Amino acid sequence: MTEERLAVLERRLAAMEDERAIERLIASYGPLVDCGEADAAAQLWATDGGYDVEGWSMRSRADVAAMVRSDAHQGLIGRGCCHFLGPSVVTVHGDDAVAVCESILVLHRGEGFTVARAGANHFRLQRIDGRWQIVARTTRALDGQSEARDLLAAGVTGR
Description:
By secondary structure, the protein is α+β, with helices and mostly antiparallel strands. The chain is built from 5 helices and 7 strands; from the N terminus they run H-H-E-E-H-H-E-E-E-E-E-H. The relative contact order is 0.16. It holds the Pfam family SnoaL_4.
């Protein structure tokens, strides 16, 4: 194997490892918030990372932890819920990345479960201190409005 070919393989492997790390980070969100692990969920964000979900703006890791600890969120957990984020499309540009996925919030109600919300999720991430962290997450309801569709289109194209 030539040095050049080895270098190409190393770059390809590094790209796959970055994509996988980001996919794992995003997939961790649901289980962490559904078991109430506020600090672990907040660690997915950069210290000053933001989360804008349908008019509710969190502007820091501390705000994300506070959301998970809130009475409203703890009530969801106590009644039974599932924050499910589907597979992510990830585009990496060096130490910056964009990812997009769809999500659903499933709530336990009576004898069964209902889908309470379906959303489009657009993430901007950076490699900070050697690990990927969310610097901005925007979530919009998939309710027919163009904003959610625009988030999906931007993410799939790596913007």
